[in-house]
Every structure is written in structure tokens, then in C-alpha cells.
User: What shape does this take?
Amino acid sequence: MTDDADLAGTTDLARTADLAGTADLAGTADTADSAGPDGRGAARVHAGSMTTTDHSDHDPATEPELGTAAEVAQFGAPGEGTPNAMGDAMRGAMSERTTAPVAPASEGPVQPIAGFVPQEIPVSAGAILLDDQGRLLVLKPTYKAGWTIPGGIMEASGETPWEACRREVFEEVGLVVDGARLVCVDTRPAREGRKLGLRFLFHCGVLSPEQVTDIVIDPVEIAEHRFAPIDEALTLLRKPVRRRVRRGLAARHCVYLENGRPVDGIS
Assistant: This one.
């Protein structure tokens, strides 16, 4: 979700944080415990190597130039000094360059642009999981009709779509997924009484026979599970999920969909 602060002039703050903090953050990778919080899910699903932070949209031209002779004299050349000392020095230099006033926290949150109302969009994430025969794992929920795949709604606690996918897979089938490919970003159309929704679909790879054996179903949410051949699985799935999964299984890169269907002009 987008915070109101993003709408009202935090360019300088974001720029300061990029220059002062990303050296430590860029190399940090998510890790997963060997089991979940209640001891289930010792099996782990691997789906190839994962990429690190993407800086392809980084534009140095938009940032103030650092490293002038005066700054080197004051703060030292790049690589000199301790990380903390250099970070403090950089923050001090950037605070002097900041021209837009920043409201103190005591004055409350920055108000959004007049007349603009940010849209609240519900987000969910699902997982494609296959066995070694190429069959798809499908679930029959207790709380709605039809069949689906592991997944669910992203929580409002600051959870990301990938974190939601991993949590839902663990909660529903007791497996810990360590890697995946994002294969679809889909939109569920809005209608009366229901907001437009975003749907992320991750291909989480192939389970080993041992991992299949380790599946533990949550009986509160899941009445039944099975591995079904793709054609059979697609007929079991509800139509919106069916369209999304069909596209996700065939995707060689992430595809954009609207209600499970490709959009003209988007490749």
C-alpha cells in the first residue's frame, strides 16, 4: 500500500536514505528457519537461485554529486573511516543540502494532495507447486466452493506479496518455500460492493517425494488436497484462478493480466 507521505514531498528524505543507508541494506538476503513457528514444515522447497536487489531504475543524475574536494577533506576519500562515522558524515552533508522543510513528527502526518484519495487495494498471493510427475497441488477450502491453489490475502501488517505467499503455503500445507519465480500479476475487477484486487502468482517449483510426504494440511481451512494432472487440475479450479494458473504455468517471464486475461499492448 502507498502511504500518504509518499504523496506529499518526501523526495528529499528518500534521497537521503538512499545515500546514507543502502550500503548496509543492499547485501541483506531473506533467510528462512528450517521449520515454522509451531515446528511444522521442516521440508523446504527450492526453485533455483534468487536475484538480489534490482537497481536498474537507479538514476545517478537525480542525486546531488558527492565527493568534491571539500567533502573529501572533511569526510575522507571513499572507503576511508568507519562505516558509522562515514554514515554520520554523509547524513550531515545531506541535511545541509535539504531545501524543503520537513514537518516535525509532533505536527502529525503530512496531508495528501488536496482532492486526491489513495485507493485501498486488497492483495493476495498464490503458489504453483508441482510434484515430480508434473501434477499440480490443488486444495479444496472449507470456507468457499470449488478448488484453489495454496495462497491467500496479504496481511495489513506490512507484509509483502512474497511473504504472504510463503506464510500461506506454510499455514495451509506445512511447507516452507525458499525460492520462486513471479509469473503473474493479475487484477480482479471491481464490482458493486467489491474493490479491485491485485493477485500475485509465484511458481514455487517441484516438490521431492519426501516433501510431498511432509505435507500437513490445516483442517480448519482445507477439507481436501490432491496432486492432479494439469488438465484435470485446471478443470477443478475456479475460473479466475484457472485462467491465472494456466498463464502462469506457460509463462517464461512475469506477465500482466486483467481478470486472468492478457491485455493488448502489454507484453
Confidence is low (pLDDT under 50) at residues 1-35, 47-87, 93-100.
